[in-house]
Amino acid sequence: NRGAFLRLVRDIDESFVRMNGDKALPLRRGQYGNSWFYPARGRFHIFNTCNGWLADKLKRAGLRLGWVDPFTSDQLMARLRRSGAAVEY
Question: What is the spatial distance between Cα 39 and Cα 51, in angstroms, rounded to a whole number?
Answer without folding.
Answer: 17
